[in-house]
Amino acid sequence: MSTGRTHLWASWKRLYLQHWAVTNISVTDTPQCCVRFTIPGLSTDCFDGDGNPNIDSIMKISGISRVYFFDKPLDDSGKRFLDFNVMLKDRLLFTVSTHFRISKLLYNPDIPKWPINGQYSLSNVGNSSLTDKISFYSPDITSEPLWTQRSQLVSVNNDTRQPSALPDWFQHKYKGKGGMDKGLAVMPIQRPLNTYSYPITVQWLDTDFFRHTNFSSYINWVLNAIYSSLSKQEIEPAQCSSSSAFLPGVARAALSRGVKDLQIRYISESLENQNLNVYVWQEESQKNKFFASVERENLQVCQLQLEYFDSCTD
């Protein structure tokens, strides 16, 4: 990544995020480093065809909230949360894995989601990576978050694009200030031979500021693959010899209940105009869970595990 594009990214954050209506900001250092805040919430384009909040929007709200506090002065002294402005002068933080836990409250239309309250906190600091946590709450319910995301972020040198140790001062100041004894681990999954295969080409709208595939595009492709399999089965019931037979648990009623849990491993980058294959499958004993591997010429790019709610009362 060029230094010039890194500077453009920093300018973009300052120019546009400064106008984001973030209010009620407060910071605590004990027992964990945590910033609390309020944001406008879910807009009308955050809902899918079933009327549920879509996962792509949930991921982006979490992501942009985190980025906001990378560069937001917290007081007149210019101090930033976790001293991100100092730590990120010569490096970037890349997400290598993430885990979303989503409450049934998110899918309840009677629970307000405008505005929403957020909590962003440090979970763990290692030598070259850190784990953070961000949760969002309805203004009417503080006992249970609408959703929570934990992410494992690796420190990457701006010029070499290789992992680099977090600064000594950062490790000394923040190690032990999180709520986890170790970082987030999303385990690899082994793709079976028999899967549902869904080819895609990375489009410009799938990419981010750095011209890499956006972190939320992968879940969109997996969802499209699942619904593609469903459509084929509805046209012609799946036979054992057909690829769609490897998604036996697919049913529109089940999918409309909403996503309960999402785990993602980001393994390598993909770029605009590259051709990828999205492989999706299920295990016989886990009817509400889907596994996916996004690959380029058999090179793993991203792996996902996606679980839906089992019933309306789950």
UniProtKB/TrEMBL annotation:
Species lineage: Eukaryota, Metazoa, Spiralia, Lophotrochozoa, Mollusca
Origin: domain of life: Eukaryota
InterPro entries associated with the record: Acyl-ACP_TE_C, HotDog_dom_sf
Segments forming domain Acyl-ACP thioesterase-like C-terminal: 199-232
Annotated PANTHER family: ACYL-ACP THIOESTERASE (PTHR34487:SF1)
Gene source species: Biomphalaria pfeifferi
A Pfam match: Acyl-ACP_TE_C
Spans through the membrane: none
Protein name: Acyl-ACP thioesterase-like C-terminal domain-containing protein
